[in-house]
Write a structure and sequence with these properties.
- The protein is built from 10 helices and 6 strands, in the order βαβαβαβαβαβααααα.
- With 217 residues, the protein is of the alpha/beta class.
- It has a 6-stranded parallel beta sheet, sandwiched between helices.
Length: 217
C-alpha cells in the first residue's frame, strides 16, 4: 500500500516539482496539495493522509499552527517540515508543534524520500545540517536542570524510550517486550509526562543526549 502524502507549500512550482518526483516512487502517492496552512488543515480533515509535507512560512495559517492542529486532531497523520529555515526558533517551534521530521529545502530529493520512509515507519528524521541546532538547544536545557532528565525514568521506561528513539512502532515495541500495545502507549504517555516532552521528536532528542541511542544507526 502506498504512503498517502499531502503537500503544503505556498509556492506552486515547489508543489509541482515535489509532486512529480514523489509520484515516481512506487510506494508513494500524492493525494492533495495546499497553498496555505488553512487549506492543508481542511484537506487533512477530508483526506486523512499518512504524511503531510509542510512548509513553515505560509499565508492565512502558518505551518507551525497548522501542524499543531493536525497532530492534535489526527495523531496518526505525521508531519514533515520542509523549509528553508535552519534557525533554532523555527526548528524548535515545529518540533514542539509535533512534527516528526525536519528537512531543509537545500537538501537533495533523496533525503526527503528517506525522511518520508523513516517517519512512516514510526521514526523521527532531522536533516544532518540542523542536528547541531537541536542538540545545542537541549544541552542548554540540561545545563539549567539540576538533574539529568533520564534519571526520573525507571529501567523499563528507559528501554521503551530507547526503542521509540530508534524508530520502532508501538506494535514492534509491544512484540519485542512481550506486552500489549495499550501497555506501551500508556508507558509512552508516562515517559512524556516525566520528561515534559510533547512529541516523539522531543523524546528522541532527549534519548540521544542521554546516550540511549545515536542518529548514526
Amino acid at each position: 500500500m502506498s504512503v498517502r502524502i499531502l503537500l503544503a507549500d505556498d509556492h506552486g512550482i515547489v508543489r509541482e516539482g515535489l509532486c512529480s518526483l514523489l509520484e515516481e516512487q512506487s510506494d508513494m502517492e500524492v493525494v492533495g496539495e495546499a497553498e496555505d496552512g488553512r487549506k492543508a488543515l481542511d484537506l487533512v480533515r477530508e483526506l486523512v493522509p499518512d504524511i503531510v509535507i509542510m512548509d513553515i512560512t505560509m499565508p492565512n495559517l502558518n505551518g507551525v499552527d497548522a501542524t499543531r492542529q493536525i497532530v492534535r486532531e489526527f495523531p496518526k497523520t505525521r508531519v514533515i517540515c520542509l523549509s528553508i529555515h535552519s534557525n533554532k526558533r523555527f526548528v524548535a517551534n515545529m518540533l514542539k508543534a509535533g512534527a516528526s521530521g525536519y528537512v531543509l529545502k537545500e537538501c537533495l530529493f533523496g533525503e526527503l524520500v528517506q525522511a518520508v520512509r523513516t517517519v512512516t515507519g514510526g521514526g523521527v528524521y532531522l536533516s544532518p545540517q540542523i542536528t547541531g541546532v537541536v542538540v545545542d538547544d537541549y544541552v542548554k536545557r540540561l545545563l539549567t536542570d539540576a538533574r539529568l532528565p533520564l534519571e526520573v525514568l525507571t529501567d523499563r521506561e528507559r528501554q521503551v524510550l530507547q526503542l521509540l528513539a530508534e524508530g520502532k512502532s508501538t506494535k514492534q515495541i509491544a512484540l519485542e517486550l512481550h506486552v500489549s500495545t495499550k501497555a506501551i502507549e500508556a508507558k509512552r504517555r508516562k515517559i512524556m509526562e516525566k520528561l515534559h516532552a510533547h512529541s516523539v521528536a522531543e523524546l528522541t532528542k532527549i534519548a540521544i543526549l542521554g546516550g540511549l541511542t545515536t542518529l548514526e544507526m
